[in-house]
Specification:
Radius of gyration: 21 Å
Mean pLDDT: 82
Largest sheet: 3 strands, antiparallel
Shape: globular
CATH architecture of the domain at 26-89: 2-Layer Sandwich
CATH topology of the domain at 26-89: Alpha-Beta Plaits
Number of helices: 2
Structural class: alpha+beta
CATH class of the domain at 26-89: Alpha Beta
Number of strands: 5
């Protein structure tokens, strides 16, 4: 995150000094291998991938049509595997328990 800071004593409109502020958040990232049944084409796989990436807490998702699976990297503090599986089920695909 970048934050603009005016050095003390500088007038309004003066050139701003840019400081890089690092924000450290501890995340418990985990990886889930999710079987996804019913995908028949590349568009199916892309739809599943987009749905997964739109799920809060999911950081990365890669769907493999040939293997009928999805590899999902997620923040365990924000989302549980059942929520991720249900997101795929909302699209009409089967995710075995």
């Amino acid at each position: 995150m970048r934050r603009h800071v005016r050095p003390p004593g500088e007038a309004h409109g003066a050139v701003l000094r840019t400081c890089l502020v690092e924000h450290h958040i501890s995340m418990a990232l985990e990886t889930l291998s999710l079987p996804v049944q019913g995908m028949t084409c590349g568009n199916c796989a892309r739809s599943v991938e987009r749905k997964l990436l739109a799920t809060p807490g999911v950081k990365k998702a890669v769907v493999d049509l040939a293997k009928a699976s999805a590899a999902v990297e997620y923040d365990a503090a924000l989302v549980q595997p059942v929520v991720i599986a249900n997101a795929v089920r909302q699209l009409g695909y089967d995710v075995p328990a």
